[in-house]
Amino acid sequence: MKKEYPFDPSIKHQLIIAIGMALWIFTFLYFTEPLDVSELYDNERLFILALYGLLGALCYVSILPIQYYLFKNNKERWLFVHEISFFLVFIVWSFLVMRSFYLYVVVRGEPNPYSLYYYLTSIFLPAVLTIFPIVLIGRFGFGKYKNKQIEEQKIEIKGDGNYEGIRLLLSDLIALEASDNYVEIHFQDNGTYKKQLIRARLSHLEKSLPTMMRTHRSYLINPMHFLSYKTDAGKLGLILSHEIFIPVSKTYTSITKETLNFTTN
Fold it and tell me: If 212 and its partner were Cys, which of 79, 107, 110, 220 is the partner (CB 3.0–4.6 Å)?
């Protein structure tokens, strides 16, 4: 099974990471002076080092579309392999930008700039080992905080058995279907439709889930997953997400229409 990795897609938090990295790059370069900036005036040196920090932040922000493409393409799941891939792209892209900035801005016109090998092994990689852990910690921390928020928002549907039940977001719960002394839970997990059977009574679950709406003595639905009405053999039914058909009994026809028409308007 592919291992998931804590991830927060918030643009605001990604920008905070970029700003923090810019400040850290500036601080690191200011105190270590690994570049040919010692001969510059103080104001020039500060300006160059600030630009290095800004470039680092821009490199990070500029590849965020790749991050969101991977996230969306994998049904909004972020895996450990995605995190590794993101960092590899980030490192390569940052090296190309930083090397170009060094050659064409910092030592432009100078006869003996650092060689590519020396710049890579003695300047860039040591900086990576010092600076990038801060980015890693920031991303991991925001990701864990995001996961904690999601867990706190989840509801728990408990069965009668000691270990029966499921935790999920209310927005992922589609419908509950009674079958004798069991209830089949229709839900989605990262956009994929799933079902789970637990030993429980629908009437008991209805009391603990007030936002669910009864359409039939054997069905409770989540109104936010309603798509359309459908008449089958003269009987009214509903189409929910993932094309799930739910019957509506005559007893609940009026209240179902009233509620759904209100929530969709």
Answer: 220
Confidence (pTM):
0.78
Burial class of residue 127, CB neighbours in 10 A (0-12, 13-18, 19+): buried
Q: How many residues does the chain have?
A: 265
Give the number of other Cβ atoms within 10 Å of residue 209's Cβ. Answer: 16
pLDDT in tens, the chain (265 residues): 478 899 999 999 999 999 999 999 888 888 877 665 555 556 777 888 899 999 999 999 999 999 999 999 988 889 999 999 999 999 999 999 999 998 998 888 888 888 999 999 988 998 889 888 889 999 999 999 999 999 999 999 988 877 688 999 999 999 999 988 899 999 998 888 999 999 999 999 999 999 999 999 999 999 999 999 998 778 899 999 999 999 999 999 999 999 898 765 5
Q: DSSP per residue over 81-133, as a string?
A: HHHHHHHHHHHHHHHHHHHHHIIIIISTT-SSPPPHHHIIIIIIHHHHHHHHH
Q: Nearest Cα to 139, choosing from 223, 83, 66, 210?
A: 83
Please name the helix (run of DSSP H) or strand (run of DSSP E) that holds residue 240, with its range, or none.
strand 235-240
Burial 161-190 (b: 16+ CB within 10 A, else e): eeebbbebeeebbbbbbbeeebbebbbbee
| Strand ordering across the sheet containing 213-216 | 192-199, 182-189, 173-179, 219-221, 213-216
Write the CB contacts of 8 (distance below 8 Å, at least 6 apart in sequence). Answer: 14, 139, 142, 143, 145, 146
